[in-house]
Specification:
Helices cover 25% and strands 39% of the residues. The longest helix is centred in the first third of the chain and has 20 residues.
Length: 141
């Protein structure tokens, strides 16, 4: 995050907190149970000339960024779901900050078999059965 963007975010959060605390009109507002701040982290691949390829993620650079995020958010929780990997840290009871990326950038996908998906609206097909091997030390702060 650029320094100016960081300062703008901090100022915005303070302004919101000040408003909730000091403006009597804020008492009339419904309070959210929890506020989630989420950011998706990725680095696009570049060719040998440095031209960005927006259709391909650079897994090494993305993993490096996520390693930096894990250190910055420590202590944080690591969550895996479907094709996503997420680092989450809670601040108090009502604010959660998370950064996520593709699971491919963090974990190794191993095909362990195949399964037949019966025809329904589309024709029957064969899908890979996969297992994700996620090395916890990869993002250890």
């Amino acid at each position: 995050m650029k320094y100016s963007e960081r300062n703008e975010l901090i100022e915005s959060l303070r302004e919101f907190a000040d408003y909730l605390e000091s403006d009597p009109r804020a008492m009339e507002l419904p309070m959210p149970y929890r506020i989630y701040v989420q950011q998706y982290v990725y680095e696009y691949a570049k060719d040998e000339k440095g031209v960005v390829n927006y259709s391909k993620v650079d897994e090494f650079e993305t993993r490096s960024k996520m390693r930096t995020m894990a250190k910055a958010l420590a202590p944080c929780e690591k969550n895996y779901a479907g094709s996503s990997f997420e680092l989450t840290r809670k601040f108090g009871k009502r604010l959660t900050f998370s950064v996520s990326t593709t699971r491919d950038a963090i974990c190794e996908k191993k095909v362990v078999g195949t399964k037949i998906v019966p025809a329904r609206m589309v024709e029957e097909r064969v899908e890979e059965e996969v297992e994700w091997v996620c090395n916890d030390s990869l993002l250890r702060p």
